[in-house]
Amino acid sequence: MGGHHAAAGAAAWVAVASTGPYTLGWYPLDATGIVIGGMTTAGTALVCDWDHRSSTIANSLPPLSNAVAVGIENASGGHRQGTHSVVGAACFVLLAVAVAQFQVDTPWGLLSVGAGLLCMFMINIAAKALKLFPASGWLTNWIFGLLMAGLVTWYAPDQWTWLPMSMLIGVVVHILGDLVTTGGVPLLWPIVIKPPKLFRKVPLLRKIWRPNGALYLPVLGRAGSKREWLVLIPVSAYAMVGLAMAAWSIARTHLGGVSAAAVAWVRIWF
Fold first, then answer.
1. Which value, in Å, is the radius of gyration of the alpha carbons in the chain?
2. What average pLDDT does the structure give for the chain?
3. 256: part of which helix (H) or strand (E)?
4. 105 has which bridge partners?
5. CB-based contacts of 12, cutoff 8 Å, min separation 6
6. Helix/strand/coil (H, E, C) string of 146-172?
7. Residue 185, CB half-sphere, CA atoms under 13 Å: how many?
8. For residues 156 and 115, what is the distance between their CA atoms, to the nearest angstrom?
9. How many other CB atoms are found less than 10 A from the CB of residue 143?
10. 88: buried, middle or exposed (CB in 10 Å: 19+, 13-18, 0-12)?
11. What are the beta bridge partners of residue 185?
12. Element (H, E) at 111
């Protein structure tokens, strides 16, 4: 499910970028990087499904998002084809690498203009999948998207590698998520390797390696199954707690600065 992909992406980012308890800390960032990256990775975890012109994602920022969906659909061969493969994942990461290079050095600091533009789509996609916006109402989507673009441009981490890392984590989480449902994924696209006839006669292998070359380990069953909900409820809670703690850290820092300034002002005047 779209919302579950987004939650899993955010949770994976919290685990990788945080250094607190119950995290991995493989790519440590400050609280701002955790919040921005978490919101972005919730979107990159959905980008693989931007391969269908009628999808919810395709209608996130119309008409631009619709045009992108048509292009990806034509290039990837349709839904759950090229975008769900190793080649597709590599293309998305290379796109993030190229976009992340677009930074502007100003008197106010380094502005991540490229990251802001890409995150305008990614964060909006996540919000759409999580049903934070009504099904209709493109104006609200665009206002929110532009606001997020401005925030990311101004506050994104200076090291540009965070954006490709977010994209990598998101697409890997998405592909793994689809791999454990009944749909499966064509990991080796555009190469289609069909299972030998002997394999098709073995019940276990027949369930893992489909005649169309797709691979899947359907431990969660169909998308939206009870098993999926049982797994994703704690995963979603983990993401929410991690992002909330990072947001609280940011708020506490700014409140501390405001309090110090207020005390200094009082001492000057009184």
1. 21
2. 84
3. helix 226-269
4. 110
5. 41, 45, 169, 170, 173
6. HHHHHHHHHHCCCCCCHHHHHHHHHHH
7. 24
8. 8
9. 11
10. buried
11. 215
12. strand 109-111
First to last CA, the chain: 59
| Residue scoring higher pLDDT (131 or 75) | 75
| Helical axes 2-17 vs 113-129, angle rounded to 10° | 130
Residue 259: per-residue pLDDT: 47
d(CA 51, CA 72): 5
- Determine the Cα–Cα distance for residues 129 and 46; give it in Å rounded to an integer: 8
Residue type (1 letter), 186: P
**pLDDT above 90: residue 226:** no
Residue with tokens 């276990």: 204
Q: Which residues lie below 8 Å from residue 14, measured CB to CB, with a gap of 6+?
A: 23, 34, 38, 238, 239, 242, 243, 246
**Quick check: helix, strand or coil at residue 231?**
helix
The overall longest dimension of the chain from CA atoms, in Å, is 89
The string of pLDDT tens digits covering residues 79-133 is: 888 899 999 999 999 999 999 998 888 887 888 898 999 998 898 888 888 877 7
10 Å Cβ neighbour count for 49?
23
